[in-house]
Amino acid sequence: MTGEFERQHGFPPGVNEVRAAGSDDQTAAHALAQSSIISADLATFYGSIGDVTWEDVGNGYFLDPASDVLLRLHEPGVVDVGADQKIHCLVIGSNGGGLAYVATPDGSVHRTRTASLDEPELGKVADDLRQFLELLERYLTRFVADGEPGSL
Length: 152
Hints:
single chain; alpha+beta; 8 strands; globular
């Protein structure tokens, strides 16, 4: 199967996994939970899930480990929803094509419209983390069935 994938796509298969949270991940998740920027659902997610890496689904879909999100919390990784809305968001992942996913304190998930986080334009993709994860699951299911990754 590896050979078939490489012949079809021109490169070997990458990592495609949902990794369970280890003790370091849980420590970072606990530290994130102390922030007023993170939703309860995202804190719970990071207490159980280390990260999500789907390198071979389209350009890829990635949900970063809590330790990366925590580092960005203390750097310029906290972004505002927009010029008219001063709600801080956490960058939690990307689509592998340069666009980032950000989560707001109310739990909604947005995607940047450009690759820049300096003054990002964001579009809402899900009302909450559960809806976002369900969308990811649908894209993965579709990709496995017909090779179409969708665009989330």
